[in-house]
Specification:
alpha/beta, Rossmann fold, 6-stranded mixed β-sheet, about 40% helix, about 25% strand, binds adenosine-5'-triphosphate, binds magnesium ion
C-alpha cells in the first residue's frame, strides 16, 4: 500500500504584486523522489521554502501525512524536525568542526545529549563517506564534501522528508558526481525526497516523478520517461529543447 507523505493543495504565494505560485498541487508518496524542473524564476526554491515553512503561503494548504502544517497554530519548529532541507550554498558554520556542524541541530533544537548526537553524527558521516573529515573545519574540505556534510546535517534529526534545492549547482563539475551518488544512495534506502534540479540526466535517473513548473503551476507531472522523453505540453518541450541546447540533457 502506498502512503502519501506530502500533499500540496492549491498553494499560492506572492512577493508584492508578483504571483510566484499560482495554485500548486503536488502529491508525494512515501519513498518517492520528485524532481522539480522549470526555467529559472519559475518558483522551485519558493515551493521548497514554503513546504519547510520558511516562507508563509498566501493560499491553499500543505499536509505532511494528514497534518495541515500551514494551519494557524501549527508549530514551524515541530514541522522542521520532520522535514530536512539542503540548499545550494552549504551554509555550514566555518568555526565549527564537521561533526559539530552535523550535531548542533539535534543538540540545540531537540535537546539531544552530546554523546547520542555524536554517535549518530559519526554513523551518518561514515555512511556518506566522510568519516575521516569529522574533526576538520569546513574550509579544509572540498565543495562536494561540504555539501555532503550539509546533507548529513539535514539527516541527523531523522526527517521523514528531505528537500534539496539545486544542491550541485555551486560545485565544480568533477564534484557533482559524488553528491549525486549520495542522493542516489538515499533514494535507494527509501528516503522521501523533493528536489529542485537543473540536472536532467540525474532527474531521469533517480526520480519517481518529474514535475515541470511553469507560470506558478505544475504544468506537467509524470514518470521521467514521459515528462523528459515524451512531454505533452509545448512549454515543457520548449524548456527541454533549451536544456538540450545548453548540453544539460
Ligand atoms: N524573498 C523574495 N522577495 C521577492 N521576490 C522573490 C523572493 N524570493 C523569490 N522571489 C521571486 O520569485 C520568483 C521565483 O523565484 P525562485 O527562487 O523560487 O525560482 P527558482 O525556480 O528557484 O529559480 P532558479 O532556477 O533560478 O533557482 C522569482 O521571480 C524571484 O525573483
Ligand atoms: Mg531556485
Amino acid at each position: 500500500m502506498t502512503t502519501t507523505k506530502l500533499r500540496v493543495e492549491g498553494v499560492h504565494k506572492r512577493f508584492g504584486d508578483r504571483v510566484v505560485l499560482d495554485g500548486i498541487d503536488l502529491t508525494v508518496d512515501e519513498h518517492e523522489v520528485v524532481c522539480l524542473i522549470g526555467s529559472s524564476g519559475c518558483g522551485k526554491s519558493t515551493l521548497l521554502r514554503c513546504i519547510d515553512l520558511l516562507d508563509p503561503i498566501d493560499g491553499g494548504r500543505i499536509l505532511l501525512d494528514d497534518d495541515d502544517v500551514t494551519a494557524p497554530g501549527s508549530n514551524p519548529n515541530a514541522v522542521r524536525r520532520r522535514v530536512g532541507i539542503v540548499f545550494q550554498s552549504f551554509n555550514l558554520f566555518p568555526h565549527l568542526r564537521v561533526l559539530d556542524n552535523v550535531t548542533l541541530g539535534p543538540r540545540k533544537a531537540l535537546g539531544m545529549a552530546r554523546d547520542q548526537a555524536e554517535a549518530r553524527g559519526v554513523e551518518l558521516l561514515d555512511r556518506l563517506g566522510l568519516a575521516e573529515q569529522a574533526r576538520k573545519y569546513p574550509d579544509q574540505l572540498s565543495g562536494g564534501q561540504q555539501q555532503r556534510v550539509a546533507i548529513a546535517r539535514a539527516l541527523v534529526g531523522e526527517p521523514e522528508l528531505l528537500l534539496l534545492d539545486e544542491i550541485t549547482s555551486a560545485l565544480d563539475p568533477e564534484l557533482v558526481g559524488e553528491v549525486l551518488a549520495t542522493i542516489r544512495e538515499l533514494a535507494s534506502s527509501g528516503m522521501t525526497m523533493v528536489l529542485a534540479t537543473h540536472e536532467m540526466g540525474f532527474a531521469r535517473d533517480v526520480a519517481s516523478s518529474v514535475a515541470f513548473l511553469h507560470a506558478g503551476k505544475v504544468l506537467e507531472i509524470g514518470p521521467p520517461s514521459q515528462v523528459l522523453g515524451e512531454p505533452e505540453h509545448e512549454r515543457t518541450r520548449g524548456f527541454l529543447s533549451r536544456v538540450i541546447e545548453a548540453g544539460r540533457l
